[in-house]
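Lay summary

Proteins are chains of building blocks that fold into shapes. Our project writes down both the chain and a compact code for its shape. Here are two examples, one after the other.
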Amino acid sequence: MKLSVRPKLSGNNAQRRPTLATVAEASGFSVSAVSLVLNDRPLARSLSADTRKRIQQAAAALNYRPDAAARSLRSRRSQLVGVMVFDIADPYCTLILQGIQATLQPAGLLPIIMDVHNQSDQFERFLGLAVERQVEGLIVVANWLFVEIDTLRRFERNGIPAALVGREFPSSVISSVLIDNEEGGRLAMEHLLELGHRNVAVIRGPRQLQDSDRRWRGMQIAARAAGVRLDPQLVVQMPESADPLQGHVAGADATRELLRRGKPFTGLLAFDDLTASGALRALYEAGCRVPEDISIVGFDDIPQAMLNTPSLTTVSQHLRQMGEVATEHLLGLIAAAQDNGSSAAKPAKAFIRLHPPALVRRESTGPVPKIAVGTPKVLRG
């Protein structure tokens, strides 16, 4: 039989938020029984299925929602997780945040997303607010990081579990999940070499980024294994910038510089997908076809990579999976702290997880052309 709930509310009461007492009155059961059912307590199983159903129907009809603040006071848990992003406009973050959200939701934890804009003072201010709000854990997405992050030591001192995505952080309690950049660089170079390219240009990332040196090291390993010498005149380093979206501009500028040098090249390895997108623009302006005249490989596999014309061959970081792995580990630390009866309990040993990359082949790479970019015939006009 369907339960019809018509609470008698009038005046100011009609605007009040329904409480456990309101649901108890509407359903005909005690407040304690209603509390057991709506808070999903183990003792609720001692009530009949019909009783539980009638209470749940009454709560739904009244649009009852638990008081999160009161519940936090009772449980001494904030049920909040800080998610700090160094620039949320960076497409790199999109899939990582999706992985974090998808993993937190079943655990009943609410993410508080903070955009640092790569500013040191903003980073420190948000960390302080996260501690004040008693977050149960912190996830830092270090997508484009120039600021010092030693302030994270504050979380070590407070015993708050934390995980870092995209950067290695030496710590006994803060775990790091990042791509194996050296292996990714090796895969990218190896792909062009297998297609027959020998004159390969490289756009390296800014010096301060850890990823840049590691990807370059992997490229060199692949080149040496194939007996190929990488010409220093075909290597350009991106300038330092606090804005990851400047990668497109930097990639275009670096490619124009490579063309001005007049050294022939048939393949181009870009630091990331935004850099590769800028390179595509510069080559198009110079009258060069991709992949007929030159092949381009990016890095990251952001959603826009397959929307380029041509679609971009790239090295995938499995970004969503990285967000899931970091969050799952954080949830384990939070659970361990709760089991020990204190958020300051000694957490499990931190780890550094190197995620394996994968080459995603699309339209921007092909066999080596007969005439290399950089020769007068290709650059005419």
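And here is the second example, written the same way.
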Amino acid sequence: MIRTMLGWIAFLILTTIAGICGTSLSLISPKKVVPYVVRPWARLMLLSCDVKVNVEGIENVPKGPCVIMFNHQSIFDVLAYMAVLPIDWRAVMKKEVGRMPFIGWVSMLSGHYLVARDGSAGDTREVKKIVKNLRSGPAVVLAPEGTRSPDGKLLPFQKGGFFIALLARVPLVTMVITGGREIRSKGSRWINPTDMSVKIFPPIKVDDLPPGRIGREELMSMVRSQMQGVLDEYESSEAS
């Protein structure tokens, strides 16, 4: 209980400070928000919750444009990738995030993407904007499941992120995060400190895939296989 209370107090204080700094910096230089506000905020949040993140394959993160996909079990997954990714990036988030104080304001002002995920014309326009920006801009980070898994098992993948990678013709990187659900699962308010692990696979070159639906399904299958393999290994190690 004490760790949970300290974690929530740290969240309120650190988020308020980072939100003020991030909002101000977004108006001056949006490109500096991730390295100078978001990354330090995430690292301090993990530190305040006594969470250590072990990373494997950080050298696989391209320096140029790419799509990075991660499995989503806990809010701590987001803190983990924010803390460890050594590049500039923009996240694809639920539209509702934009209404959150500080986090939403910084997200909108610094160029992250807020989508409704309802197939509306607005979403189509947002995908086109992401593709256009991605070809020359920073990497895009998203969860192909679209939301947090309640039991840790992979949910069905949404197609949008794979369309983006194929249309932009940029590499796709699979990032598998474990341990976050044990710290705080979906719907829980309790924080249970433990180590997390992030495994980053070598980039998948989409130019090597067939065009159209066949290429998209092959890409989805490859990413799912990589994620499932790590999750199966993690579950086996936890059970032994």
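What can we say about the second shape? The chain is about 50% helix and 15% strand.
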